Amino acid sequence: MKTRNIKNLVCIALAILALSSCKDQAKIDADKKAMEEKVAMEEQSMKAEEAKMKEEAKKKEMMATSITAVASKNEELSTLVSALKAADLDNMLSEPGSYTVFAPSNNAFEKLPKKLSIAELGKAENKELLTNILQYHVVSGVITSDKLVAAIKGANGKYTFTTVGGKDLTASLKSDKIILKDEKGNKTEVVLGNVKASNGVVHVINDVLILK
Fold this sequence. Notes:
By secondary structure, the protein is of the alpha+beta class. The chain is 50% helix and 20% strand. It contains seven helices and seven strands, in the order αααβαααβαβββββ. The radius of gyration is 35 Å and the shape is elongated. It starts with a helix and ends in a 7-residue tail after the last strand.
């Protein structure tokens, strides 16, 4: 009887030990899984933060070489930059995108009649007019001088395209110069082409294009 009791006790002890071992192993496994999940979440968070930092750095670099930034570095385009800021278009030309800007020089703005001078256009009540005029100088997509010349030749000497303001400009060639004509028939010449920017290209012109 005693032997049987001893055997029973041993069995019970072994069962308790086995159960305890199972519980310990389950806890170890659970702790291990929790740690792995925590590490994975931390790694994911770090990767997301790194991606965000890279994106911000990329955007900062892009803005530093954007159309607005390039124009700001050119003293001959200081009036245009002021006009863009007054019309709240400087941000559009600083953000990622694809634009071609026919940029009037300072001298071009000085040619405007008094009622269309930058001093008048810069007034709050003339903001809509200023915005429309500036949008007449911007085209969606990148049109380099080579592409524009090819388009002119492919269109039998006159190539018409639409600005972001929904109005048309017509490009032609005079000797080796690119000439633009607005809807009123006024003409201007590209005096400096292919100024590259991160979000497009700038062509400097010597007159301000006027809407109908």
